[in-house]
Amino acid sequence: MAKRIEVKDLDIYYDKFLAVQGVSMTIQPRSITALIGPSGCGKSTFLRTLNRMHELVPNARVDGKIFMDDEDLYGPGVDPVSVRREIGMVFQRPNPFPTMSIYENVAAGLRLNSTRIKKADLDELVERSLRSANLWEEVKDRLNRPGSGLSGGQQQRLCIARAIAVQPGVLLMDEPCSALDPISTQAIEDLMLELKSDYTIVIVTHNMQQAARVSDVTGFFNLRGVGQPGELVEIDETTKIFSTPSNKATEDYISGRFG
Amino acid sequence: MPSSTERTRAHRAPQRPGDRVFAGLSTGAGVLILVVLAGVAAFLLTEAWPALVAPAEDIPGGEGVAIYIWPLLFGTLLSAFLALLIAAPLAVAIALFITHYAPRRIAQALGYLIDLLAAVPSIIYGLWGIAVLAPLSVEPSEWLAENLGFIPLFAGPATSTGRTMLVAVIVLAVMILPITSAVVREAFRQTPRLHEEASLALGATRWEMIRMAVLPFGRSSIIGASMLGLGRALGETMAVAIVLSVSGGVTFNLISSGNPKTIAANIALDFPESTGIAVNTLIASGLVLFAVTLLVNMAARAVINRRREFSGAN
């Protein structure tokens, strides 16, 4: 069920301001694609166009095409709500619903997607999602406690469990470890490598080591200059990007000469 | 945590005068609230006491203080709860519209307008009730009595003056609507963007997002705002005194000419002509009102605290 994503000549606007220009890339199923680049270069903005979260900002819009397998995500008559049900997202800061228990958090998406699920089926889906997120053993005795009582790393894994509970085709992660300590980061990275066998994962990260550790393909975003739109400079096998990038700016960035 | 307090005692930080002054001022303000509350309670108790112990035939009406106060209490509770029943859902809807549906410019104007409405004195609402709403209510009341008369609330016969409980309830509802929706609006506005996005990213529609993130987050504020509104409706004097044509009975009938009185309006209307034990009786009814408002507030607190862990405040 992992889906392939194809982006063609995507321009991203905030009102009249062109934020990201001319992105084209193919994201392979069952792989991890990392997007790196300096702050403000539009990698998070780009990520949010993949599940049509970008357009929640008033007057934000895109030009160009995004296909998920053969489905045109921005085609006429496509409901952004159904796109988001197919493409899960994990955010920079862990954001479990504070008013819901751990169980309810994981079940939240399931309850949206199908009107009636039998309690036993729901229990099973919640357990499976928590197991997939490597969180089951830690929370199985307190499923009815609030999700906000967990540690930051646990909360982030809870959010991953919530996202994968609805079995999306693609999982987007927007700097999922930037608010976490190294041990929790490690846990999330291990989890990503496990999830790769079932999902297409796209991760935005500021941490180049993280991109090198987990991803198969790395895309480098950069700004041409101040006030200029961001662009995808280069996208290639991660090993190639981090050893022999074909673009000078990429080399400067990964070797720490700027950014 | 005893260990940490012991440690602070052992290594006491140097005291700064600014800190000390401010701590004193805020403690004083906190104590003042308690003193005022205790003073009011003491006043009500001592002044009400003669009526509470007086023989039944001395009390106005001649049947004792409980029989005197009960219809008043009934009228007060009936009008306030019905007003809240109308106002609370409307207030939540208005707050949702302003924070999540209206275009920004309209939302701003509307929010400003509601803040203004909250500041209108209650006597104005009372005048509007008797001058505009009461005559307007006559025909619908007759219709209600004819067609929905089987419901005790609309048993009729409908009065031709329009000075009914129904009109009083609507006036009260309109009166508490602005303050209630203003409080709820502020709570909804503070819903973390993070949680709204979490539900939208799961594929929630706007209404589902509101149910998942906004309403649960605002739950305690909705209760708090309702209690604020209820408190205002319970204690409202002038609007009710002007609108309601009273006979003092206990009835659920909202559209007839025989309406129960409310405590506050009764005190306002009768106090100038009362002497002796009658004054004490009125104050005893005030004591009951005071106790009811306290109870309502405590109940609301308890409801909020029961789900504290899930409030998002931790």
SSE-based structural type of chain A: alpha/beta
User: What proportion of the residues of chain B form beta strands (DSSP E)?
Assistant: under 5%
Distance between the termini of chain A: 37 Å
Percent range of helical residues of chain B: over 70%
Helix fraction of chain A by DSSP (H/I, runs of at least 4): 25-40%
- Helix/strand-derived category of chain B reads mainly alpha
Query: What is the second-level CATH architecture of chain B?
Result: Orthogonal Bundle
Q: Could you give a short account of the major beta sheet of chain B?
A: none
Q: Within the CATH hierarchy, at the fold level, what is the topology of chain B?
A: MetI-like fold
CATH superfamily of chain A: P-loop containing nucleotide triphosphate hydrolases
Task: Describe the protein in words.
The complex is a heterodimer of chains A (259) and B (314). The mean pLDDT of chain A is 90. In chain A, a hairpin with a 2-residue loop joins strand 1 and strand 2. Chain A has 259 residues and is an alpha/beta fold. Chain A has a single domain, classed as P-loop containing nucleotide triphosphate hydrolases (Rossmann fold, 3-Layer(aba) Sandwich). Chain A is globular and about 55 Å long. Chain A has a 10-stranded mixed sheet, sandwiched between helices. Chain A has 10 helices and 10 strands. The longest helix of chain A has 14 residues, at 119-132. By secondary structure, chain B is an all-alpha fold. Chain B has one domain: MetI-like (MetI-like fold), CATH 1.10.3720. In chain B, 74% of the residues lie in helices and 0% in strands. Chain B contains 11 helices and no strands. In chain B, helix 3 runs antiparallel to helix 4, helix 3 (65-101) packs across helix 6 (165-189) and helix 8 packs antiparallel against helix 11 (277-306). The longest helix of chain B is centred in the N-terminal third of the chain and has 37 residues, at 17-53. The radius of gyration of chain B is 24 Å and the shape is globular. The mean pLDDT of chain B is 86. Classes of the chains: A alpha/beta (259), B mainly alpha (314). The A-B interface holds A 51, 53, 56, 58, 81-86, 88-89, 91, 93, 95-101, 108-109, 112-113, 145-146, 148-149, 159, 162-163, 166 and B 104, 192, 194-195, 197-205, 208, 212-213, 216-217, 219, 307, 309-312, 314.
